[in-house]
Amino acid sequence: LARHFGKPIVVSGQTLGPHLNGRDGALIAQTLGAATLIGVREAESFQTAVQLGVEASRVQRNLDDAMFLRADDGAPAGEPYCVVTVAGYTGLVDRDLFLDRMAVFLDRLVETTGLRVVTVPHQGGLDASDTSEDLAMHAELADRMSHAVTQDPVHDVRAIASLTRGAALSI
C-alpha cells in the first residue's frame, strides 16, 4: 500500500533473525528491500539486513521503540519476578518441542533463582475474551510447567513497560 500511494516505508526498532531461511528469508529480504530506512537494535541484525541485500546506508542502529516510553506505576510489588513473552510462532522449531523445552527451562529458572514467572503478552486485543497467539502460547506453556505461572492479560504499552522495568529478569 505504501508503494501504491508513493509513501516511504520505514522499519523501526526490530531484531532480525537469528535464522532466516528459505521463504522467511526471502519475504524479509523483499520487505526490507522496499524500505527507505531500517532501524535495528543490535549489530547482528544490522549484519543480517546487509546479508539479505539491503544497502548498509539504509540500515541504522537504534534503541527499542519503547525505550523512552514513560511507564505507569503498575509493576507488582512484592517478590522478584521474571517476565516472559512467548510469541505465537516458533519459526522452524516444532511448536510442541519448543514449548516442552521452554517449560523445562523456566522450571529450572524458578528452582535456581527463586523468581516467579509472569507471562506478559505483547500481541492481542485488550478485550478479556481475546485468545490471541501470545495468550494461547502462554497458557500452553503454563500447562507444561511444574511451577506456578502468573498469566497476565494483554496490557497497554505503559503497563507492559512498567512490568518489564520492574522485573529482575526478562525473557
Secondary-structure blueprint:
Blueprint: E1 10-14, H1 22-34, E2 37-40, H2 43-51, E3 59-61, E4 81-84, H3 95-113, E5 116-119, H4 133-144, E6 149-151, H5 157-166, E7 169-170
Parallel strand pairs: 1-2, 2-3, 4-5, 4-7, 5-6
What does this structure look like?
The chain is α/β, with parallel strands linked by helices. The protein is built from five helices and seven strands. The strands form two sheets. A four-stranded parallel beta sheet has the order 6-5-4-7, sandwiched between helices. A three-stranded parallel beta sheet has the order 1-2-3, covered by helices on one side. α2 links the parallel β2 (37-40) and β3. The longest helix is centred in the middle third of the chain and has 19 residues, at 95-113. The protein is globular. It starts with 9 loop residues before the first strand and ends with a strand. The model has no long low-confidence stretch (mean pLDDT 86).
Brief overview:
It is built from five helices and seven strands, in the order E-H-E-H-E-E-H-E-H-E-H-E.
Radius of gyration over C-alpha positions, nearest whole angstrom = 18 Å
Percentage of residues assigned to helices: 25-40%
Low-confidence stretches: none
Mean pLDDT: 86
Ends apart, CA distance between termini: 34 Å
Q: Helix and strand string, N-terminal first?
A: EHEHEEHEHEHE
Helix tally equals 5
